Amino acid sequence: MVISNLINSFVSIYMGHYQKAFVIFLICSYFVYPPLILSSSTDGYTRIRLKRMKLNKDNRVVSQTELTHSLRARYGNNLIGSNGLDIVLLTNYINTQYYGEIGIGTPPQMFNVIFDTGSSNLWVPSSKCYLSMSCYVHSKYRSGMSITYKSSGQSGAIEYGSGTISGFFSKDNVKIGHLIIKDQEFIEATKEPDMTFMTGKFDGVLGLGFREISVGNVATIWENMLNQNVVKYPLFSIWLDRSENEENGGGGEIIFGGVDPNHYKGNHAFVPITKKGYWQFNLGDVLINGESTGYCQNGCPAIADSGTSLLTGPTSAINEINAAIGIKSFVSQEFKSVVKQNGENILDLLQNELSEQFDTIRDSDIDCGKAASMPNISFTLGGKDFVLTPQEYLIKDGEGDGTRCVSGFMPLDIPTSDGLLWILGDVFMGSYHTIFDYGNLRVGFAKAV
Predict the structure, then answer these.
(1) Residue 305 is a catalytic residue
(2) Which of 183, 208, 379, 406 is the most exposed place for a label (fewest CB within 10 A)?
């Protein structure tokens, strides 16, 4: 994808502006490092328990992380000028928010953050955030309370669909579980859009993508973990608990430097990374009830993105899948308007386009009771078919009798040099434990349990 220095930023974070609620994530895995997997010791790696916020039916917003990818791919360096801004849409969708706790500073100041494989920066609210109400309902970083704080001096701003996050870079130690990452650069946000952040349970975002999409080209948390030798093996794994079990927070786990064999069964199928930045790889065939759709028989570009709630793909393919499910009203989120390089307001265009899409999504509900008659949908990765059953790809929108469901598949046309991009978000990662193997530049998937 074509991405400028600042447009390569907090892609795939989390937010929206209209209908339906959000975020799930994370998965974990196995096969690369047997001694680590078989050991019950935590030596050399750390696990972060993820918490989950239940669906708030009064604050339902559609996942729009993918639109950032679309904007960047379509408009590239012409999307944003030299004003130092980036357009990003925070994701929120129908189920819940999954987040974990980290500490910044000495002594550590605690924050709930979303661990996002689709972005590469860490940001949290700053104590110098005075004018944004959302800063007053979340934890704020106070540099004066940390003896390891270092000033950076570089400013940063990110333009969202419904407002701006702006602030400045700072350096401090970051504590993740028992790991201490020293002198990590992060953004102290001094301005935040209030609409979504007022209700979000997370304070900030911790990106786990590659440095190639890092705002300011600063070293990522994961890069510094490796450089400072705080993890034994160069991989991390994500397990997203999509069950209704609320014990221990009912969220999931992310493990840095290892995997937990209790979170999956069988062996992982690995696919090599084809492009660094996002965790991008090659997707094989797409099947409906075991029958090929023919869309990716020759391979399609895809990414594993814990910052995207749904599974997205080209309009023609996803519309065929949704038609087989019994959903007729989903339409493409491809932008029909052309942005003029020297004038048109991209945010107004974005809001108008999204408004139309949200209207169609309101009509896309389906009776959950019809799941038994719906087909399985499969995706071929590393020569293995990964099946999603109706119970796995439908997202409940309510509780009790007569519960309505929404399809976990959303059409989205994102052009790349390798073809239209597929995003395997939380709908897929919730069913398949995922290893992000940085050392061997590959991603592995196995059935989550």
Answers:
(1) yes
(2) 183
